[in-house]
Amino acid sequence: MEPPGPGHPVVLRGGLGAGPGAGLQHVLAALHPYRTAVHAHRRHAQRVRPDHRHQSGLGRAGLGLPRPGLQLVPVHDHRSGLHSGRFRRGLAGHGAGPAHGGGGAAAVRAAGAVDPGGRAAVGAALNPGRGPPAAHAGARTALDATPGQLAVLGRAGVVDAGGRGLVAVLGALVEAVTGQPPEPVAPTVPVPAPVLDCPSADGPQDGPAFEVIYLLEAEDAAVERLRTRLDSLGDSLVVVGGDGLWNVHVHVDDAGAAVEAGVEAGRPHRIRITHFAADRGHARPEPAQRAVVVVVPGDGLAGLCAEAGATTVLARPGEPLASGELADAIRRAHAREVVLLPNDGELRHTAAAAAEQARAAGIRVALVPTRAAVQGIAALAVHEPDRSFDEDVVAMTAAAGATRYAELAVAERQSWTMAGICQAGDILGLIDGDVAVIGEDIPATARTVLDRMLAAGGELVTLVLGEDVPDTLAHMLEEHVREGYLAVDTVVYRGGHQCAPLLIGVE
Hints:
There is one protein chain. The protein is of the alpha+beta class. The protein has 17 helices and 19 strands. The chain has helices at residues 22-45, 50-55, 60-63, 102-114, 119-125, 131-145, 151-156, 161-178, 220-233, 255-265, 299-307, 323-333, 348-360, 373-381, 389-401, 442-454, 471-484, and strands spanning 10-12, 71-77, 82-88, 210-217, 234-242, 245-252, 267-275, 288-296, 311-314, 335-341, 364-367, 404-410, 415-417, 420-422, 427-431, 434-439, 460-466, 489-496, 502-506. Helix 6 (131-145) packs antiparallel against helix 8 and helix 14 (373-381) crosses helix 15.
C-alpha cells in the first residue's frame, strides 16, 4: 500500500466496533504507510538541509504525511451501508481544518456513532491547532472524568469503554506520527465520590409500577379486545403471537387487573409480575424463614391477624380478589416459605394461581384450603414457625379442618333453600355453606344455629360480630353456651365492616 498523496484521505472503515482490539489493529494498519514514510523522511533529513528539504518538497505535504490538526469526519460507505471514520489532513486555518470548528464537531458525531460514551473524550481531545500529542493528553483527561459523569461507571469504578478505545486510537496516532509511544494509561481507576440523587438504571423512575408478562391461549378476536383493555390500563404494551398462542407484556399500576384481563380473554399461564420500584436504592433485609398470608372479610380481623404476625389481604364485598393481588401479598410477606389462607371456598382457584406465580419466583408456598374466616383464625392459632414447614402446614390444615363454620345472612329475595322457602328480609343461618335455618331475627336464629353445631360436640366457640351488631348479642350467646354446654369456651372478636352480621366457628 503506497502512502497517500496530498489531498488523499485515509479511510478507516467499520473497525472500531468489531471487538476488543480489532479497531486498534485497523487503525495501526491504516497508519502504517505514514509511519514508514516518517522514518524514511527522518533518514533523509540527516543528509539534507532543512531549506533543501522544503525546496525539494520533502516536507510533510511532499511525503503525503498527515499535517498537524487531524480532523475526524463521518463518511457513509454506500457499498456496506455502514458509517466509518475518515481522517482528513488540513493545516489549521486552511479549508475545513479544525480551526474552523468543523473538526471537533465532526469527531464527536463520528465517535457517537460508535459509542455515545466517547463523546466527552473526543470533545476535549480535538483541541484545534495543538496536534496529536495534545489531543491524546486531552482525551486521557476527559476519560479520567467519565466515572463522575455517569452513575453506573462511578458505582463500578471504571472508565467509559468507548472513551478508552478512543484514547488507544489517539495513542497509536501519536506513536505513528512522532515515533514516541505515549505514556501508558494507569491500570486502575480511582472510584469517585458517590453520585447523589442519581436515578437508578435498573428500571423506570416514573410511570407504572408493575411489569406483567404471561403466555395466553386465546382466539384472535379475544386478543383484540385484550389489547384495548390493557392499553387503557398502562403502557409498553406488546402482544405478539398467533395460531391461538400469544405472548403478552405490559407495564401497569394494577397488576391484578392485567392478569384478570388475560383470564377473560383466554387461559394465561407462565405469569410473571415484577415490581419496578420495590425498595429501589435500598438494601432489603434478609427474608424471613416463614410467613402466613390471610384473606380477611373485615378490617377488625385484619388487625387481629396482623397482631399475630400475618400479612393480610382485605376481601372486598361483591368483588372477587385477583390472583395478582394475592401473589403481591405473598411477595410483601418477604419470606422463603409462605402459608396461604384464602378463607373463602370461591377463592380456591385464584389462590392456587397466586401460589403458582409465587413458586415461579422461588418462594415455597403451601395453600391451606380454608373456606371461612373462623377456619383461618383456627389455623393461625396453631401456627408455629419453629416447626418444620411440612409439620406446620399439617397442623394448620388439621386445625382448619376440625372447625365447623357458620354465618348469618339476610335474604334479599324469595328463594328456595335446603331449609325451605325464604322471603326477602328473612335471617338465614348457613352451616358449612348450606342454608340450615330460616328465622325472623338474628338472636333467635343464632341460638338455633349454635345448638345444631354443638349437637355434634365442640370445645371452643368463636363469634365474629359485624360492625353494626351490638355487644348484647355476644353476651346473650355466651350465656346460652355456658348454660347449655359444659366445658365449652367462647371467644368473641369484632370483625369490623363485613358482609355477614355474625360468623360462628365451633372447634
